[in-house]
Amino acid sequence: MSGSVRRTTMPSIEIVAKEAGVSTATAGRALGGYGSVSRKSREAVLAAAERLGYRPNSLARSMITGLTHTLGVLVPDIENPFFSRALRGIADAAHERGWEVLLVNTDEDLTLERKALGVLTERRVDGLVVAPTDVADRDALQAVVDAGIPIVLLDRRVPGLDADTVGIDNRVAAKDATERLLALGHRSVALLTGGDEKLRPKLSRPGLRGVERLGATTVGARAAGYRDALVEAGIEPRPELVSAEGFRREDAAAATRRLLALPDPPTAILALDSLLALGVLQALRGLGLRCPVDVSLVAFDDADWAEAISPPLSVVAQPIYELGAEAGRLLLDRVQGSDKRFTHRRLPTRFIERESAAPR
Amino acid sequence: MSGSVRRTTMPSIEIVAKEAGVSTATAGRALGGYGSVSRKSREAVLAAAERLGYRPNSLARSMITGLTHTLGVLVPDIENPFFSRALRGIADAAHERGWEVLLVNTDEDLTLERKALGVLTERRVDGLVVAPTDVADRDALQAVVDAGIPIVLLDRRVPGLDADTVGIDNRVAAKDATERLLALGHRSVALLTGGDEKLRPKLSRPGLRGVERLGATTVGARAAGYRDALVEAGIEPRPELVSAEGFRREDAAAATRRLLALPDPPTAILALDSLLALGVLQALRGLGLRCPVDVSLVAFDDADWAEAISPPLSVVAQPIYELGAEAGRLLLDRVQGSDKRFTHRRLPTRFIERESAAPR
DNA sequence: CACTTGGGTGAGAACGTTCTCAATCTGTGG
DNA sequence: CCACAGATTGAGAACGTTCTCACCCAAGTG
């Protein structure tokens, strides 16, 4: 392959055995803590190991036991605070039970995601936590499951996949947030989804079928919840108030400027993540408008800055760390042989009322 | 070990060879792309592999090649935006050259860090990027290096360790930031370090030796730079203006309240990371003070919210992603056999002047 | 004394690759 | 037709563990 075969200087169990004057089998037993070994042999082996600085080779161990004690984690972008916090939860759960974490960023890129699935399969990870880029990857994911590697989906769902899922009830959470804005007297509420261009027509004019299909995705479910609240309040959803122009802060800022330039501009905005909310705040500053007196704002995710800025931001807080930890635990249960029916765990969200949403 | 030996259902190269009617050696050559194989054999093997859904076992490959194509990454806390961004840089650099990343959080805990070093050694990672908790871990780190696993230190340094390091010039950056506050007419500048209790006396009354010794750590170097600026400006450093009361936002808020309650309170604050800056902002809000009219604020790290809040925060921006990417590249060079002298790479910082620091 | 029991031991297989080496096949030049 | 270089091939070793199995031995048991 890549040329030079690197010879490590590390002593093998055979060397340790020789040094201790026993067979490799006995040395293995003493070091691995299985089988039965006399006190004398054990002490000789452990002393020899200590002397030589012996470190077991977990690759060889994995070859034979069939367990790598490694969990693969596939997320779009570890820089995203949502995923870095969730990863922390996953990693802690894994560590607690003696597992390590192999991390791959997918960049929301399907090709990359598939390649990563292949690589992690070749590495024989014991299981995978995946925040899939797209439901379109169902087959690739199912292939991994069929190969005997259990998967737990995080945040997003993929219909028809044999996997546990962990997330929140996005539709209900979004509906609740929207209702709170309506209750403050806002009749014209904008939605900033962060999805990409091609999503927008679907979001703004979804047939019933469309909503159902989109309901599978996080953004889609939240958009559906937003619609639910409007419809129940007897307000006709206005497509031009739904913006899906990109995930970056600048995209959100541009979208905000566009929204506020409308003939009948929104008096409140619901942003589907905290980065988008920053874009809104930035745009408001630029326009000389103030939050919440001119425009109310509510965002998903309780970012660390949400409470510290002026005005403190009202948010829909997800239990992100717990989401990750639960995914990790669920996965480890599977790895360790659980064959319960697949569960779809929904953890509760919490609306934190601060000062960015005010009566109209 | 942990009980059940899991038998994977995945076909081995031997099965593929049988299916294709060739020897395992030939199948290996066709699949691995080494040696020479006739067109006919290759096609038969690839077809058989495709048919059986063959996936090479990279554990077996690593056993023989001595390369796991895995980089270990040891950081205090992946949730910290600094480390999650740096990790992104490391991961991208690794991916680009066909490596994967095994991640461990150390929680600033020396015991955990040592255990993690052991685990990663057993996993035979090809190299390690470490943001060490403490210089006290020198021996444990050196042992890993001696075992043949190269290390690159990120952000922090460990004197006397055979390793490359990547970071910024903390002393110069802190001095520059302090000078800018002094240039605005501030004579009473506080420093929020975020270090823990036992650090404070050293920071506030360092003998020359003290400063030198602390210069090895990130916080210490920045504190030294802060002092440098004061001394050069002919201002006597006041120990009570240096606060090291914890890393969390609440700690910073409490420290800020304490500072502002002093008889001769600071008119400007330098916060050593963005989370601490949030604490300051929160405390100011609570006290009914405004930034920058009542208190000026400058912080390290250009957090994503820094530009979006009011007032936009003036910051010392580190090239965090590049720091990580550079560490990754340096490490991969070592893994692939470079034996250049150890380098200590300092990437340039950039002061971004926004609106949180104003004339007194 | 013969017979069982069970702790302790070592030889060698197994895991799934890549590597080494010698043997065979192919085509070319004389 | 022969010699020879080079491509192609397969048997078997190697990597470092754990697992299987047969064996030895001391201590009871009848």
TrEMBL record, chains A, B:
Positions of the HTH lacI-type domain:
11-65
Q: Does the keyword Disulfide bond apply?
A: no
Entry keyword annotation includes Glycoprotein: no
Matches recorded under CDD domains = HTH_LacI, PBP1_LacI_sugar_binding-like
- Record's PROSITE patterns? HTH_LACI_2
Q: Which InterPro entries match?
A: HTH_LacI, LacI/GalR-like_sensor, Lambda_DNA-bd_dom_sf, Peripla_BP_I
Name the UniProt key words of this record, in alphabetical order.
DNA-binding, Repressor, Transcription, Transcription regulation
Q: Which SMART domains match?
A: HTH_LACI
Q: Which Gene3D superfamilies match?
A: 3.40.50.2300, lambda repressor-like DNA-binding domains (1.10.260.40)
One Pfam annotation reads Peripla_BP_3
Q: What is this protein called?
A: LacI family transcriptional regulator
Name the source organism: Nonomuraea roseoviolacea subsp. carminata
